[in-house]
Amino acid sequence: MNILIIEDEKPNANRLVKLLAELRPEARITAIIDTVQESITYLSTKPSLDIIMMDIRLADGISFEIFTKTNVNCPVIFTTAYDEYALRAFKVNSLDYLLKPIEQQELGEALEKFDRTRLNSNPSQAVNDLMEFMKSQTTTYRTRFLLPYRDGYKTIRTSDVGFFYSEFKITHLVLDNGHEECLPFTLEELEEQLDPNLFFRANRQHLICVNSIQSIHNDVNGKLRVILKTSLPKEIIISKEKAGLFKSWLDR
């Protein structure tokens, strides 16, 4: 069994490799890819694949773009943080999904389903249906955080957040005045919870609010240097690969 993993979070990719080795030791991981563009290039070579494990959100965009630029002729298992009820209708033979964090039993069941079907049908239509379905849903984004405070709780509005950052596997919320709080969420989970019109995943460590941007400057090798409006100087570098996506996000 030849398996391609498309995942931009290294811990998630490593977990998939580990689980697959335990469940299917005979399986061969043909590649681990972390961007839409690299996935398109790789799949355009028409590699021999039995199944693709594909994250929905990648470093340079949404993985659905892959299906519009190249042919995907094998079954796909999406790994996603989207709500299961929104995706349940799309558990079809050529398209499946697993909610993060991925559990061994669920992955095993998905692989068993693959064994039963062994279909070589093109999943592109199922992906198109999925995209239209997701667009039709009314999404409610997080507007505040409830956090422990002394012997009770306090709330922080998302509109008061300048940016989020991850360090040593701990996620921090930073207000415009520089005050910080720790959150029990990963940046990936926050991406799903926050309005994408207001928040952008600048890189693996930072998720920034559009209202906190003070200035943007060209940097070396096509990168961008973003200065945030915080009490302490804060610069965030956006890679050349994400620079175009960032500028499109700002130019809406």
Characterise this structure:
One of its GO terms (molecular function) is DNA binding. The longest helix has 14 residues, at 10-23. The protein has 2 domains: 2-135, Response regulator (Rossmann fold, 3-Layer(aba) Sandwich), CATH 3.40.50; 144-250, OB fold (Dihydrolipoamide Acetyltransferase, E2P) (Beta Barrel), CATH 2.40.50. The mean pLDDT is 83. It contains 8 helices and 17 strands. It has 252 residues and is of the alpha/beta class. It is globular and about 55 Å long. The protein has a 5-stranded parallel β-sheet with strand order 2-1-3-6-7. A 5-stranded antiparallel β-sheet has the order 12-11-10-14-13, with no helix packed on it. Strands 15-16-17 form a 3-stranded antiparallel β-sheet.
Task: Tag the structure with descriptive keywords.
2 domains; Rossmann fold; five-stranded parallel sheet; alpha/beta; DNA binding; Sig_transdc_resp-reg_receiver; globular
What series of H and E elements makes up the topology? EHEHEEEHEHEHHEEEEEHEEEEEH
Got a strand count?
17
Largest sheet: 5 strands, parallel
User: Based on helices, strands and strand pairing, what is the structural class?
Assistant: alpha/beta
CATH topology of the largest domain: Rossmann fold
CATH class of the largest domain: Alpha Beta
CATH hierarchy: architecture of the largest domain: 3-Layer(aba) Sandwich
Radius of gyration: 20 Å
Mean pLDDT: 83
Protein name: LytTR family two component transcriptional regulator
Keywords: Phosphoprotein
Pfam families: LytTR, Response_reg
GO molecular function: DNA binding; phosphorelay response regulator activity
